[in-house]
Design a protein that fits this description.
The structure is a homodimer of 892-residue chains.
Chain A lengths: L11 E3 L8 H16 L7 E4 L1 H10 L6 H16 L2 E2 L5 E2 L1 E7 L9 E5 L5 H9 L2 H18 L5 H15 L9 H19 L7 H15 L3 H10 L7 E7 L10 E6 L11 E6 L3 H5 L6 E2 L1 H6 L1 H18 L3 E8 L2 E9 L4 H13 L5 H7 L5 H5 L2 E2 L7 E4 L1 E4 L2 E7 L2 H9 L4 E5 L7 H6 L2 E4 L7 H9 L3 E3 L5 E3 L4 E4 L2 E4 L3 E5 L4 E4 L4 E2 L5 H13 L3 E5 L3 H9 L5 E5 L1 H5 L1 H12 L3 H26 L3 E5 L12 H13 L4 H17 L11 H6 L1 H21 L4 E6 L5 H22 L5 E7 L2 H5 L1 H4 L5 E4 L1 H9 L3 H7 L1 H6 L13 H18 L4 E4 L7 H10 L3 E4 L4 H11 L12
Parallel strand pairs in A: 3-4, 16-17, 17-18, 18-19, 26-27, 26-33, 27-28, 28-29, 29-30, 30-31, 31-32, 32-33
Antiparallel strand pairs in A: 1-2, 2-7, 5-6, 5-7, 8-9, 8-11, 9-10, 11-12, 13-25, 14-24, 15-19, 16-23, 20-21, 21-22, 23-24
Helix pairs in contact in A: 4-5, 5-7, 6-7, 13-14, 13-19, 14-19, 19-36, 20-23, 22-23, 23-27, 24-25, 27-28, 34-35, 35-36
Chain lengths: 892, 892
């Protein structure tokens, strides 16, 4: 990042100067505080230090030039507006210093509250509030928070001091401590700071502020923030803004409170009041889940006036933002203050319902609704749910914080969850409450269960964002961390025991529960029907079985883009014939084996053609290296060594030796780049002949009974047009032979995979012999990068992603600059030869939203993906057509 | 090939109509006969059927429309010119029907002589020659040749009949047979034809001619012609012309003869008379080696007039063609006839000498001289020769037919030579004489030894063309084919015994002889100095040792383009430390192993820098997968099974198991695409650190004693610019650390290999972090085609080449359309970022002439190849600059 001429540069903005559109400069929180200020809503006054200042700070580890002075001027301004002064003996100004990134990162960065207190100003606070206990409680909270966040003193040291004080006084609750006790604690806390941080606690509020701002800047790069960004695809170079805002207190007494609310239900999307609050508490108490809060409805009775104002403001905000809002408020002595509003995180189901409802309410149009949904969350809705007919043993019931069903082993800490998760084990992270420090465990877990905290607690918010099932505040669950067990009544659940949670109902169930297919909601159908009208790109499916084909059609697939024939070869009743075929010593032996496979393959294709009822079916001829079908060579060698040691019969030894030598002959140094794909078709033409015959015989049979199949035969791994030329001729001659014998006409085309760089750069010549191209982006990624997927993902890709050498795993997200460029080159060359050449993608990328959008940009005809990803691809394809908008990315 | 409108088409040309420039239409022989006719030289009259007619024939297997009539008209014309008539009772016209391809394919296709004879015309021939014996000898020769070539009767059947006749008459030589005997043989031959070919011998000369023309057309596609074309890179679609020419007879008596001569010595290039003749013989007798002919010098005494005319014509021809001519002549009753002239095949040494001499003689200019030499023959001159100090046991001495030394096992037939050769065994093909049917054996052999035939025999011509050592006419060698042995005096040599032949001296030596480096001739140096002036492309070498570096500098290398560091890791005293490094369990263990390797690597680099004396040295950091340095997993597993069976001590078993698990962890599915190259540098940075340190410490040491090395550090296998960015920074920091400690300044640059398609298409970004690119065309070919070289060459490439799916092995000849396109794209993108970016090629293609020319065309800075190929690259690079000319390709 280039350093700007900082003299002319502006790093701070009063709330009055900003607005919601300035998010990238002011962060989400700041921009929305400014926006609310502009709307005339009751927002405590303050100003914002921009993300640019943070980025400059990150380079030099010091304040950019001029920031000091700007902050000083803003403070003076703020003092003027509020009539209070920082550190004042009589009426001190207290401020909060909060992080605020462009994309919400709940709880990942640092915050300091009650800033401005010292031994002088605490007297002023007493003067203003006539509440010595409150003043000293605020003071000790400030030292505690500042000590921990800014000076890096372990928070447990403060906690211990509090516990000790309570013990001494023989009380149990913090609230039972007297003003005198708290005053004493302030002294003790200062000593702790002095001992640990080796400095006197800074009494000058200006110094407090400067240190706090720096601490917030630095928290942008703390480990949990990095993990969260990585998990959520948020760039590392955005920086955080810092919000400096006058403190208001929800903890001044019983006419005070603080709460969090959503304008709609973020779990179901229903238009209803949803939220929680705590009387006499500060905001952190609600979010952290430390106290389980009250449903917002109750506020109506307790503070009707404030409640009414709140409801009115929420309506205003939703109408203004045209989206569901997630707000934070504080009531200080009956007066309502708005501390935050933002577009609320929601489950996939809620996102759909809200988008569709808002179209009905004429708040947004169909395009906006399409743009609202992150396609990658859709598959949450397609995932299995509990079988309602299953007998289940419900252990407990908590708050249904994030829907979906998950089964896994119980674990009690985030590290363990990550450790087991990385081995592929399914775990349910079970905590008293979760904190931002648990983020890596939440990512690794199938689902989250907490015994405390509400629907808006950290665990709930994060889980909903990730589409993971979550149950919160399940108080029946009594966790014993030391013993690594939890109890529900008399039932003891140990670490590693299996439970199932249903985040939609809040049920915690003992053991594994059978799952069934989901029901697709009408919102889902409606939104996707809008997407279908919008999109240009076709969406097909990759399916090798009639079941998959049927499932994909339910999800809206318009054909099969890739039917792999090798899976059919792997079936138990076939592998023996496949091995005979491969190891045949004579043409006769080989053709006998193929004769046995022919009717089986024909049957496979019949089922698929029937399921697709006349929609196009692209069948790829055999692709993998033959030795994938053979036994392992090392194993055979060990077996031989053992036969010899056992002095087994000579014929057995000879047989084994013969097998070894045949298998050895098939072994390759780099099978990915060896005898496979069309190379097999050229060296073993009888295999492709059999497959083509099976395809066409099946097509004839299905055509004679129902809809005529649309057959597309695909030749894999072509590098030179001559390969395709040869195999095309041979394929046609087998096809025509079958059609002549059956006296039928079946439409068929012959195309090829473009999955090698050479095919891409010579696509003009290849197109002369191809009716269609299908980009095999998995293999194309392997050869373009020179990455063997198996080896790369095991050996160096994790480090590459960790170190940001690559932004994304190119096997998940299509690499635009490299692989995408080759796809674009091939498309252009192919269409130069045949302007209407059909172009598809059948790698896994066909079901990844950003890749789908890239395919649309390149101008492909269709994408093909696994059945469960078909809806996602339909939506992503529609978003690709939305003008300009960074569709689907805004809900990060 | 498109069929033309044959009515308007012309398929035949009288000699008077053609010329040397019409080679592609008239074939080499026809075009030159026409040219000589135009020069007024004594050429027997005739006409030519074009190669186009042959190609049309190849499609439809019948004469193209109109050819019949054209041939008829030409015949009438010929009869008019000669005053003779085909089949005439009194003065019959006899013709030869000879093949004649665009590129000379000596003896590979068919020829029919004496055509026009039947029971009637033989009488006319007697009338004209008054020589009944000659007439019937010609007649039986005709039936024999026509029977074999056209009617496919086995020639041994005719031979047997002759032997039987000789036996009956108690004579030994053919010449002892009387006219009556021959007349009888004619009858017997006709019966053989009738029995074997199931037709009466065709008596109508028109029918004889038509059948002969077709037979010549078909001989274009006979197996030996195909093999020859493949070995010599001649396209299959050129076709042969057919030359129909009035017969002249060298076998009419002692004032007759026939011979072959070169205008210069084709073995040494010396300007001297070189050739052989036979009195009273037909041309085939000389070429076939059936009789060992007389040196041409002797002709001066025997036929001074004809000799003088011959010498004069040879001078004319060489001056006219500006190249050494290979001519055939016949003397009929004292009158000289020219039957052929062509640019003569020659050894590499001769080619050089002739080209350089002709420049001195002002026959050609330097550019023409450069264009004359096929670069691929140069390495013949660089190959080792016999150590003159070695004690050798000379068995025999023959004619020095093609220079060079070769050692191998004696084999007696071509099939066996091919069989053993394909297994990598070195063989010396030892024959009485070679025939065109032996071509596959000649290709497979290291050298050729024949007991018969002269310097212009088939074996000699073919061997010289291929640059293989050859000794001909070594009559002391008595071959017993049945017994598979040969004797020289009392010494018995069995099949499989080792001999060495020296084609320059003609010595056949028992056993193996030590070889030493060749002496580079002044012609060689002169021609290459001209090439150096002409070329734009730099030429470097691939060298890993000081010896290779020195050798390459002798051959003109201007730097090292690729110094591989992995070979240094493989040395016996190092592999143990390398394994320790790889299998280290702690950083400490690893760094200890690296500390042991550091001084060794430093020593390697010192030697190389010293050898290169300040020329640039590009060092590639470690590239191959680490498991290449480890023991084989299968072997370890078998060893473990055996330890268990032997009930070995538990600690031994555990140790083995531990090793297995460590090695297994390194095994990759596709090591070519796995953890190697810069991926190693990123995951194991300490390895590259050690290498960079060793390089720079070596550079400092060498600089302090002599010339300052020019260090170029090369990072392999980059796919994304971030890889290079990271490693560049790390490399610089190690380099600067060394230079600071040593208080020295050494110029260094850091560049990368472009060997992955992604690197090629994102070369603009990569160039930002690279001081130079070096195209690793071996790996780039692997990933662009998706071919693992090991697997492809073993499993399917041979079939691809056989079936012409690929014209060339892309690992030998750079694939212009695919890989070359990526190289061009990368060059353009790289130079867009850095206009002066240095671009090189360091794959094996850097030493292949066509690939070098492609590199020049793309605009690369230099090529780098193995030391022995440096001269070749220098020449090819110069040829690339010759305007338009298909330089180097004309001498096919």
């Amino acid at each position: 990042m280039k350093k700007r001429d900082s003299k002319k540069y502006k790093y701070t903005y009063a709330f009055e100067e900003g607005g919601a559109k300035m998010k990238s400069l002011l962060g989400g929180k700041g921009a929305n505080l400014a926006e609310m200020t502009g709307l005339g809503l009751p927002v405590p006054q303050g100003f914002i230090i921009s993300t640019e200042a943070c980025n400059e700070y990150s380079i030099g580890k010091k304040f950019p030039k001029g920031l000091d002075q700007e902050v000083e001027l803003r403070l003076v301004e703020l003092e003027k507006k509020t009539g209070k002064k920082l550190g004042d003996l009589k009426d001190p100004l207290l401020v909060s210093v909060r992080s605020g990134a462009v994309f919400s990162m709940p709880g990942m960065m640092d915050t300091v509250l009650n800033l401005g207190l010292n031994d002088d100003s605490v007297e002023g606070l007493i003067l203003q509030t006539s509440d010595e206990r409150f003043a000293y409680d605020s003071y000790r909270r400030f030292i505690q928070m500042f000590g921990n966040v800014v000076l890096k003193v372990e928070s447990s040291k403060f906690e211990k001091a509090i516990s000790k004080k309570k013990e001494e006084n023989g009380v149990k609750l913090d609230t039972e401590l007297t003003a005198e006790d708290l005053k004493d604690l302030v002294k003790i806390f200062k000593k702790i700071v002095k001992n640990d941080a080796k400095i006197d606690f800074p009494v000058n509020p200006r110094a407090q502020l400067e240190l706090s701002i720096k601490a917030v800047f630095e928290s942008w790069n703390n480990p949990r923030a990095k993990v969260y960004r990585k998990a959520n695809g948020i760039p590392d170079n955005l920086g955080t803004a810092v919000n400096i805002q006058t403190m208001v207190f929800g903890n001044k007494g019983s006419d005070c409170g603080t709460g969090v609310a959503f304008t709609r239900n973020p779990s179901t999307g229903k238009k209803e009041l949803y939220g929680e609050y705590l009387l006499n508490a500060q905001g952190e108490d609600v979010v952290s889940g430390a106290r389980t809060p009250q449903p917002i409805k109750k506020l109506e009775k307790e503070m009707p006036k404030a409640f009414k104002q709140l409801i009115s403001i929420m309506k205003t905000l939703e109408k203004h933002y045209k989206d569901m809002q997630d707000i934070e408020f504080t009531i200080e002595q009956g007066k309502l203050y708005m501390l935050q509003t933002r577009n609320g995180k929601r489950t996939a189901a809620a996102a759909l319902k809200i988008a569709v409802d808002m179209v009905s309410e004429r708040l947004i149009n169909q395009d906006e609704a399409i743009g609202r949904i992150d396609p990658s969350v859709l598959d949450q809705l397609l995932h299995p749910r509990l079988d309602p007919n299953a007998k289940i043993n419900v252990l407990a019931k908590g708050l249904p914080a994030s829907p979906g069903a998950a089964t896994g082993k119980v674990v009690f800490d985030a590290d363990k969850a990550e450790e087991m998760g990385s081995k592929g084990e399914k775990v349910i992270l079970t905590r008293w409450e979760t904190t931002p420090d648990d983020i890596h465990g939440v990512i690794a877990a199938q689902g989250i269960l907490t015994s405390h905290g509400g629907m808006t607690s950290h665990a709930a918010v994060v889980a909903r964002g990730m589409g993971k099932p979550c149950i919160c505040g399940c108080e029946e669950v009594k966790i014993d961390l030391e013993g690594k067990v939890f109890r529900v009544g008399n039932t003891l659940i140990k670490e590693g025991d299996i439970v199932t949670i249903d985040g939609a109902s809040g049920q915690v169930i003992l053991g594994e529960v059978p799952l069934i297919s989901p029901i697709i909601s009408s919102d889902f159908k409606k939104l996707l029907s809008w997407a279908d009208k919008k999109r240009r790109l076709g969406v097909r499916t990759n399916a090798d079985t009639p079941e998959d084909a049927r499932k994909a059609r339910e999800f809206g697939a318009e054909g099969i883009g890739l039917c792999r024939t090798e899976h059919m070869f792997m079936a138990e009743d076939r592998i023996v014939h496949v091995r005979h075929m491969i190891l045949a010593e004579t043409d006769k032996e080989r053709s006998e084996a193929l004769d046995k496979l022919l009717p089986m393959q024909r049957g496979d294709f019949e089922g698929i053609f029937q399921a697709m009822e006349g929609l196009p079916v692209t069948i790829r001829l055999l692709d993998p290296p033959l030795h994938e079908f053979l036994p392992n060579l090392s194993d055979l060698k060990v077996e031989l060594a053992e036969l010899k040691h056992k002095k087994a019969a000579q014929y057995k030894i000879s047989e084994k030796e013969k097998l070894i030598s045949k298998v050895r002959a098939q072994v390759e140094a780099n099978p990915m780049l060896g005898l496979r794909g069309c190379r097999l078709g050229i060296t073993h033409p009888e295999i492709y002949d059999m497959q083509v015959r099976a395809i066409m015989e099946a097509a004839c049979k299905v055509a004679s009974k129902g809809k005529i199949p649309k057959v597309e035969i695909m030749i894999p791994l072509v590098s030179h047009f001559n390969e395709l030329k040869l195999l095309r001729e041979r394929t046609i001659s087998v096809v025509e032979d079958v059609l002549l014998k059956k006296k039928m006409k079946i439409p068929y085309t012959i195309g090829t995979m473009i999955e090698l760089p050479r095919a891409a750069v010579t696509a003009d010549k290849i197109a002369e012999y191809a009716d269609f191209f299908s980009f095999g982006t998995n293999d194309l990624t392997q050869t373009t990068f020179g990455f063997s997927r198996d080896d790369a993902e095991g050996k160096f890709l994790p480090k590459y992603l960790e170190d940001k050498i690559l932004e994304d795993n190119p096997f998940e997200v299509l690499d635009e600059d490299g692989v995408g460029k080759l796809v674009a080159i091939a498309s252009e060359l192919g269409r130069k030869t045949k302007p209407n050449l059909k172009l598809g993608v059948c790698g896994e990328h066909g079901g990844e939203p950003r890749s789908v959008k890239l395919c649309d940009k390149i101008g492909l005809t269709y994408v093909s993906c696994s059945p469960y990803r078909v809806p996602l691809a339909r939506l992503a394809a529609a978003q690709a057509r939305l003008d300009g908008a960074e569709a689907g990315a805004r809900e990060k």
